[in-house]
C-alpha cells in the first residue's frame, strides 16, 4: 500500500508566450523575469511543492515544456500519469483564448482522466490600451457555460505582480486531493470483505473455466 504524502502531477498547457514558464517559476521560487525577445521553453522542467490542504500535506508537481517538445517523443512522458492540466491563456490576447478548445481536445486525447483548470494570466495588462484584444468577462462566461463539465477550476492571475497564484495552487491541490479521496472511498465501499462480485453476477462461470 502506498504511503507518504499524496502526490499530483500537473502539466502546463496553452499557446506560446501565455506565461506557462512564468507560472512555473512563480511556483518554483517565486521569481519573475521579463524576457526581451522570444524565449520559448526547450526541454522539460518539473518542480514540486508541498501544500497543506486542511489537515493534510499534498505534493503538487508542475511540469513545463515548449510546444515543440509536446509534439515530439518527449510528449508521451509529459502527458503520462498527469492528474491535471493547467490550461493557460493570456487575458489580453484573444487568440490565445479562442484556441482553447483545441487544447482541451489535446488534453482529453493524451492525458486521459486529467482534470482541467483554466488560468487567465497577465491580469496586470488589462488596460484601456489593450481593450480591443482583451478576453472579456462575457467571453469567459460563455466559454464556461459551454465547458462547465470539463473545467475543475477557473482562475485569473498575474505572474508579474503575483496576483491570484498562491490561491490558485492551493485550490488546485484541494480539488485534486478531494477527488482522490472520493475515488478511494467509492472503491472501498464497492469492496465487501469475503464477497466476489463476479461470481454472483454469473453463477456457474467457474465451472465453465474449469479444465
Ligand atoms: N506583464 C506580464 N507579463 C508576463 C506575465 N507572465 C508572463 N509574462 C511575460 O510574457 C512573456 C512570455 O512568458 P513565458 O512564461 O515565457 O511564456 P510561455 O507560455 O512559457 O511561452 P512558451 O515557452 O513559448 O510556450 C515573458 O516575456 C514574460 O515575462 C504577466 O503576468 N504579466
Ligand atoms: Mg515556456
TrEMBL record:
InterPro entries: P-loop_NTPase, Rab, Small_GTP-bd, Small_GTPase. Coiled coil: none annotated. The keyword GTP-binding applies. GO terms for molecular function: GTP binding; GTPase activity. Pfam families: Ras. SUPFAM superfamilies: P-loop containing nucleoside triphosphate hydrolases (SSF52540). Keywords: GTP-binding, Nucleotide-binding. NCBIfam families: small_GTP. PANTHER family: RAS-RELATED PROTEIN RAB. This is Uncharacterized protein. It comes from Candidula unifasciata.
Amino acid at each position: 500500500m502506498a504511503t507518504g504524502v499524496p502526490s499530483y502531477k500537473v502539466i502546463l498547457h496553452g499557446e506560446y508566450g501565455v506565461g506557462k514558464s512564468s507560472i512555473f517559476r512563480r511556483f518554483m521560487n517565486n521569481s519573475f523575469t521579463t524576457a526581451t525577445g522570444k524565449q520559448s521553453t526547450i526541454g522539460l522542467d518539473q518542480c514540486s511543492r508541498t501544500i497543506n490542504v486542511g489537515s493534510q500535506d499534498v505534493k503538487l508537481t508542475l511540469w513545463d515544456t515548449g510546444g515543440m517538445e509536446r509534439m515530439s517523443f518527449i510528449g508521451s512522458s509529459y502527458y503520462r500519469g498527469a492528474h491535471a492540466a493547467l490550461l493557460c491563456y493570456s487575458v489580453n490576447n484573444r487568440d490565445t483564448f479562442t484556441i482553447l478548445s483545441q487544447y482541451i481536445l489535446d488534453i482529453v486525447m493524451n492525458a486521459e482522466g486529467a482534470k482541467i483548470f483554466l488560468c487567465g494570466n497577465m491580469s496586470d495588462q488589462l488596460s484601456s490600451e489593450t481593450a480591443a484584444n482583451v478576453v472579456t468577462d462575457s467571453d469567459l462566461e460563455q466559454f464556461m457555460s459551454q465547458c462547465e463539465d470539463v473545467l475543475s477550476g477557473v482562475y485569473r492571475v498575474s505572474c508579474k505582480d503575483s496576483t491570484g497564484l498562491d490561491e490558485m495552487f492551493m485550490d488546485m491541490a484541494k480539488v485534486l486531493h478531494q477527488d482522490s479521496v472520493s475515488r478511494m472511498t467509492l472503491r472501498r465501499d464497492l469492496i465487501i470483505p469475503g464477497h466476489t462480485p463476479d461470481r454472483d453476477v454469473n453463477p456457474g462461470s467457474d465451472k465453465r473455466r474449469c479444465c
